[in-house]
Amino acid sequence: MNGKVLLVDDELHITRNLEKVIPWSMLGLEITGSAKNGVEALELLEAEPADLVLCDIRMPVMDGLELVRNIRERGIRCDVIMLSGYQDFSYTRSAIQYGVKDYILKPIPYDELTGVIARVMSEQRSKRSQDREDRRKLQRIIDMANEKLMYDVLMDYTDLTPDHWLMAGQEQLIGEPQYSLIVFDIDAGSADARDWREWPDKERKIWNFAVCNVLRETLHNEGLQHAVIQMRDGEWSVLLQLGRMDELPVLTEAEREERHGLQVVRRTEQLLEAVLLNAKLRLHAGIYRKVAAMNELSEAYKTVQRGMQLSTDLQPIALYGSELPCVFEAGRTLWDIAERLIGAMKRGDASGVGVEQRRIAEQLRQAGGGAEGRLKPLLHFLALHLMRELKEADLLSRAQEEALWRKMDSRFGVKDLFAAIQQASNEGVARSTDKRGHSELQMAQAKQYIDRHLFRDLGVEETATYVGLSTSHFSLLFKSAYGETFIEYVTRQRMETAKSLLEESNKSVAQIAKEVGYSERRYFTKVFMKYAGQNPTDYRMALQGVETPVQVNDEQDEER
């Protein structure tokens, strides 16, 4: 793609010579027009922006310096090379003040001018390339921060209100139907997953990471706004920002829902194929049938996860979200019991575990002779779900896991399934009780580790690994111990440290941003403004008793 050049000179023979003598094509440029004065040039620039302007200084109506001043005041992005027959230093000084790239005296030395144009355009292309790279890095930083936040949103760990300081400018998305949710899961009980179950933990972690990368890269190549979050071993959530469905006002709610489902199914098919091709493992997917607002995502995730776990006819892709058929009624009851059972185990509540075990037994008793045919598949899925949750919470040893998998792989009835659930839950609550004191020590170690590494990009996965826990279990324990999520705690500590540095040091805002773990000042400023109610510069000025400007936007703050 060629750059565009505008020639501005009131002497027609000069513009004609410039058109003919300079090797524009070789320089990757094309002339888009010429003007006799500054007024004509501004009109042309407003109609068609140029990358480079070659401009005489002395012209009628509006001279070159006035033209450059107008270009800068109007925010027109282009480089300017001035041409003049005058060797008056005052012209050069004024040109420099307006950011003119170079100043060529007439008669024009065309070889020299060609070299200057080549240098200016090379600098411009390098700057654009660097700007693209900076935007890419900034976007990735924002994406990573969003993924950490969205994990807490999906797990219902964080409070989502418009004035929550952690939203950092995203509060307008809370109530808008903004996301499509897809849950990818390995069928842990299938024959295809037998190799996966036998992999050591280290190999599973590498594979989980690889699947995340495949999903991210595929969505990135499609140009979609997205977040990919690993929820637990062998399960991921993908959030797509596909826009508002009310762009189709003539459709009924049912028609919108159907069209949305078809769009997301096509994307899901592509993602499943990409994982199979690159990670060599077959997954299945559940799609939330509707577009969900941010504050609806936790319930949407639970709906899809429950539907996938309780479905006795597992399809590669299934949609969930509308009223479930009555065949799932018993399953929903068992699911609710299982969720309470898992919660009691994680708390080390042996009494609560006993209550939920008796409720499962009562469901089986009420089913009577139909339990074997109707409840056995559901009980099988609940046993698998229970095992995976115990594994994620580090409440199941490797030996116990392997023993339970052997039982699950063999043929046995409802009573045996219930016995396996009892055994797993009893062992889980006992292990949880034993680990309670140890968990407090782990959280203290995690807090110390976070405080020591605030200066760099620090993820929940890294911190969880440091204290020997899975990400999901670590997140649960951390929220329970400190009353806020990992990302809330990290961000709060960084902001408080930044406030202290702004008050007690003379370091620049960019330096402080790096010291508290933000490689991009713009993103640091955005978070700080949401947290403190002022941008960093105004915050420092207020502490020093200096009157702050009436209003300064992010871009202006970046320039100061």
Note down, in words, how this protein is organized.
This protein has a five-stranded parallel sheet with strand order 2-1-3-4-5, with helices on both faces. The chain folds into four domains: 3-128, Response regulator (Rossmann fold); 165-324, Reverse transcriptase/Diguanylate cyclase domain (Alpha-Beta Plaits, 2-Layer Sandwich); 329-435; 453-560, Arc Repressor Mutant, subunit A. It has helices at 12-21, 38-47, 64-73, 89-97, 110-154, 194-198, 201-221, 253-279, 297-310, 329-347, 350-367, 371-392, 398-409, 414-452, 460-466, 471-482, 486-504, 509-515, 521-532, 536-543, 554-559; strands at residues 3-8, 29-35, 52-56, 79-84, 102-105, 180-185, 225-232, 235-241, 284-288, 317-320. The two termini are 34 Å apart. It is an alpha/beta fold. It has 21 helices and ten strands. Helix content is 59%, strand content 10%. Strand 7 (225-232) and strand 8 form a beta hairpin.
